[in-house]
Specification:
Elements: H1 2-5, H2 21-32, H3 42-46, H4 67-77, H5 87-115, H6 117-140, H7 144-164, H8 167-173, H9 178-207, H10 215-235, H11 267-270, H12 274-295, H13 297-305, H14 317-320, H15 324-359, H16 361-384, H17 388-417, H18 422-429, H19 431-453, H20 463-481, H21 494-503, H22 512-517, H23 526-551
Helix pairs in contact: 2-9, 2-10, 2-23, 5-7, 5-18, 5-19, 6-7, 6-10, 8-9, 8-18, 9-10, 9-15, 9-17, 9-23, 12-17, 12-19, 12-20, 13-15, 15-16, 15-17, 15-23, 16-17, 16-20, 17-18, 19-20
Length: about 550
């Protein structure tokens, strides 16, 4: 078994088609991407316990208004079996997921580079799917701490390992299209919820009874489905022999593009460079400026436009929330808004990352920061003048660049630090994501609540929030401006590189003929390639169709 999982065993021979690797990565990323869709379970879980009359029991934090009271209620909810959970209680599991993503990626990124993507992918599937099964038991026994442990901690570790497992491999298979390669995989992570959320909703509807919301059964089914996809995807990972390059492709000469390194920085030295920390700020600011507002997209649209969303222009949000029918209609439009920006988030990952191959990574991030800041400023004006279509368009662009930032950063790192440790360096940089996952929502939610308590009308709440987020993008712009080529002193010598490759059990391409053979699309594998892509494109198409249906309400 150890030989089967070893890096030597998965080094591809001349018959391997490199286009088999992206669908393998997509299979893993589409599975773990369901982390974005966990909120679909909050409402049924919040009403899971019923009294004798079939009405939901009171929440463990019933009557809590302050943060301290809610936190105290969560402490009670962790072990209580006689009261219901609130969104606040369940939301901590979501927070744990993404904090552990960054921490696990940073802690085990070095092991991943030496163990190879196949072993890391299988460990990821064990953690992610095992976490879902433990969460299922937590729901069944109504133990919140088991859900936190299962999908929050253990699942978060699987999330981190699964997220970075294909990055280095894809960059090495596609040195000619680094952005496109990483964009394809990371697009899958953004699209996981697009598939998983409607599937989970259908499964809960199938398993639900008058006394059971069907959540634990849904977790079990999802765990089985994801296990199949993740194991198949992980087994599909192959690595190229050291020295391999695509046919008819010549690496750019250092003199023509000094921003693309031709040597390699060791993992242990990368964090000692100013470039690492500048790119950390770049990613953190880009994510912080997007994640908080995207997480609050539906209520933001409803509060800003009120009755204008449903043709009742004379009503503000304070008016329509007094009427259940009007509230439901506005919520449907809000859900459609979430759907359409989700599509732009997903496909922006592929489009922007692919474009960065031609534009250059630094120039692409300049676009993110300048255009993003302008969109936030414009959104303030559009909100004030009730320009719904333009407001939606602005946030579609923002969402596309939010996703594009995730997909472009691995290629940026490969350009700066070389490809030998790019997966591990990317893993450590993901701590910026974990940080942004706290900073962005805290800024948005705290400013929202402060202004609401101060009596600011709903439609005026978000203007200063947009300005603060634009300010974060300005900080990111300045950090990106300061990024320069890495100094010679940080690169490994030829001897150090050879020793590291020996430790990592890398195989070398023996001849030029072998190296060319790798790029040939082997006729015998063409059917396998088509089937592999079909296996991931079918669920993606399903997810897009379901999301388009939800988003259509914006245009109806």
């Amino acid at each position: 078994m150890s030989d089967f999982l070893s890096k030597e065993h998965i080094t591809a021979d001349g018959s391997f088609n490199r286009w088999l690797v992206p669908p393998a990565a997509l299979a893993v990323h589409l599975s773990i991407g369901m982390a974005y869709g966990f909120s679909v379970f909050w409402k049924p879980l919040g009403n899971a316990l019923l009294d004798a009359e079939g009405k939901p029991l009171a929440a463990c934090a019933a009557g809590a208004t302050t943060f301290a009271e809610k936190l105290s209620g969560t402490g009670k909810a962790l072990f209580a079996t006689d009261c219901n959970w609130t969104h606040f209680d369940l939301g901590w599991m979501y927070t744990l997921l993404f904090v552990l993503l960054g921490c696990s990626a940073a802690l085990w990124c070095g092991w991943l580079e030496r163990a190879g993507p196949r072993k890391a992918g299988l460990v990821s599937s064990l953690c992610w799917c095992g976490g879902l099964l433990l969460s299922a038991y937590g729901v069944y026994s109504h133990q919140l701490w088991l859900m936190w442990l299962g999908s929050g901690v253990i699942g978060g570790i699987g999330l981190g390992l699964g997220y970075i497992s294909p990055v280095s491999t894809l960059i090495k298979w596609f040195p000619d299209r680094r952005g496109m390669a990483t964009g394809m995989a990371i697009m899958g992570f953004g699209g996981g919820a697009m598939i998983g959320s409607p599937l989970a909703t259908k499964l809960m509807g199938y398993f639900a009874t008058p006394t059971n919301p069907g959540v634990w059964q849904t977790f079990v089914v999802l765990a089985v489905i994801y296990a199949i996809f993740m194991v198949c995807g992980s087994l599909g990972y192959r690595v190229p022999a050291t020295g391999w390059k695509p046919a008819n492709w010549t690496p750019p000469a250092p003199s023509t593009n000094t921003m693309i390194a031709t040597r390699h920085v060791h993992l242990n030295k990368a964090h000692k460079t100013p470039q690492f920390w500048l790119l950390w700020i770049v990613l953190c600011m880009n994510v912080s400026a997007g994640i908080g507002i995207i997480g609050a997209a539906a209520p933001m649209l409803q509060e800003t436009f009120g009755g204008a969303l449903i043709g009742q222009h004379e009503f503000g949000f304070a008016d329509i929330k007094k009427d259940d029918a009007l509230t439901a209609a506005a919520a449907a439009v809000g859900a459609g808004f979430v759907g359409i920006i989700s599509l732009f988030n997903i496909f922006g990952r592929f489009a922007w990352a692919t474009s960065s191959d031609a534009l250059g990574r630094k120039r692409t991030y300049y676009i993110f920061f300048i255009l993003g800041a302008l969109m936030y400023c414009a959104a303030t004006y559009m909100a004030g003048h009730k320009s719904l279509a333009l407001f939606v368009a602005a946030f579609c662009i923002i969402a596309s660049m939010y996703g594009g930032g995730f997909a472009t950063i691995p290629a940026y790192l490969a350009d700066m630090f070389g490809t030998q440790f790019v997966g591990a360096i990317h893993g450590r940089l993901l701590t910026a994501w974990s940080t942004a996952g706290i900073v962005g929502p805290v800024i948005v939610n705290s400013m929202h609540d402060i202004r609401l308590e101060a009596g600011v009308p709903f439609e005026q709440i978000y203007a200063p929030i947009f300005m603060v987020l634009a300010g974060l993008l300005v900080i990111g712009f300045l950090a990106n401006f300061l990024v320069k080529p890495v100094a010679d002193q940080y690169f490994m010598t030829d001897g150090e590189l050879a020793e590291e490759r020996k430790i990592s059990h890398e195989k070398f391409a023996q001849t030029q003929a072998n190296m060319r053979a790798y790029t040939a699309s082997a006729p015998q594998s063409s059917l396998v390639v088509k089937l592999a892509w079909l296996a991931v494109l079918v669920p993606i198409t399903y997810g897009v169709w379901m999301t388009v249906q939800k988003a259509w309400v914006l245009f109806s």
